[in-house]
C-alpha cells in the first residue's frame, strides 16, 4: 500500500532537517587542522626556549664600560672584560668563558641575569651574581675572616657608611687571603689588605657609588629588584 499523503509530508520534513554532507571542495579539511595544531606546538616550544637561548647569544649591550671616572689614589683601575652578557643561573662563568673572570675578585664580565639586594651577607654570594651588582654601579666588600669578632667589626664599619644602604654588598670570599678585605666596583679594585680600615672603605664608597656601572648612566641602587637568597 503506498504511503499516505500525511506520511509522505513527515518524511520530507525529516529529510530537510538532516545535516547536509560537506562537499569535497569546501569546509575545513582535517589536513589543515593538523597543520594548524603543528604550528601552534612549534610556537609554544619556541616561547619556552627563548628565555634560555637569548641570554646565551644576546645581552644587555655592546658597551662594556670603562673606569673613566677613576679617582687617583682610590683603588686601581683594572682591565674590563669584553662582554657583559647574561647567562642562565644554572651555569658557571667557566661554562661560558673558560678562562673565568679577569681578576680575583671579579670586577667585570659576563654574569647571571639577577643581582643580589644590598646588604651584609655572612653566607657566600656567587661571583656570577655579584658581577651584575657592579654592572649597576654597586660596590662590593669581599672579606675572609676566621674570627667572628672581626666580621662583627667589619659589619659595624660597613653599616656606618652612608652609601651602603643603596650601593653596597658585603660577602665572605675565600679566594682572597685569610684576614683580608678587598673592595671592587666595575673596573676598579682596592686591596686585598689586612684587617679593617673603615676610612679606606668610606673613601671608596664616596668616590664610586653609582659611578662606574655601564648599564645605567647614574647607577641603579641595589635596594630592590634583586634576589634576597643569593
Descriptive report:
Mean pLDDT is 81; it is low at 17-28 and 42-59. 35% of the residues lie in helices and 14% in strands. A hairpin with a 2-residue loop joins strand 7 (180-185) and strand 8 (188-194). The chain has a six-stranded mixed β-sheet with strand order 1-8-7-5-6-4. A two-stranded parallel ribbon has the order 2-3. It folds into two domains: 26-57; 76-208, 3-Layer(aba) Sandwich (Glutaredoxin), CATH 3.40.30. The chain contains seven helices and eight strands, in the order ααββαββαβααβββα. It is of the alpha/beta class and 230 residues long. The N and C termini lie far apart (92 Å).
Total beta strands: 8
Beta-strand percent range: 5-15%
* CATH hierarchy, class of the largest domain: Alpha Beta
Number of helices: 7
Give the integer mean of the pLDDT values. Answer: 81
* Share of residues in helices: 25-40%
* Biggest sheet: strand arrangement: 1-8-7-5-6-4
